[in-house]
Amino acid sequence: MPSYELCLLFKVLPRPEITQCLKRTASKIFESGGFIRRIDNLGTADTPWKISSHDAIHKQASYFIVEFDVPSSAVDPFNNYLSRDIDIIKRTIFKVPENIPQPACTLHEELKPPAYRSEVKEMIAIGKRKREKEARKKVQFNTGLDYMPFQR
């Protein structure tokens, strides 16, 4: 199952009501076959701008981050459920990228001059390909004149 991160902005509510909101959100994750890795409470703070949600304007919100794993087919219905919850001002779901192992860097590789490092050679090759592609795209007009008549 892929990992997701959910950023939630709740209305400013008393602690028991925020707990109920989080329980509703967590139970929906569990119903869709997922599990929660972590819940972070970032506290209550002013929003960067006025946010209009469910016919109300909000200037403050309680910020939470929920990390969870759920099947990818369940993300859209879950997002739809969150959009209908009147206590949630704003919600955003991000897919957490999988950790791709990077090749280990050795001291011998780092001590080489930049022109001889493999990463730099790859970047130079990419740049050359882009320049060649741009050179092929240029259109040259053969008008027989040694100047462009419509330019000053």
TrEMBL record:
InterPro entries: Ribosomal_bS6, Ribosomal_bS6_sf, Transl_elong_EF1B/ribsomal_bS6. Pfam families: Ribosomal_S6. One of its GO terms (biological process) is translation. One of its GO terms (cellular component) is mitochondrial small ribosomal subunit. GO terms for molecular function: small ribosomal subunit rRNA binding; structural constituent of ribosome. Belongs to the bacterial ribosomal protein bS6 family. PANTHER family: MITOCHONDRIAL 28S RIBOSOMAL PROTEIN S6 (PTHR21011), SMALL RIBOSOMAL SUBUNIT PROTEIN BS6M (PTHR21011:SF1). This is Small ribosomal subunit protein bS6m.
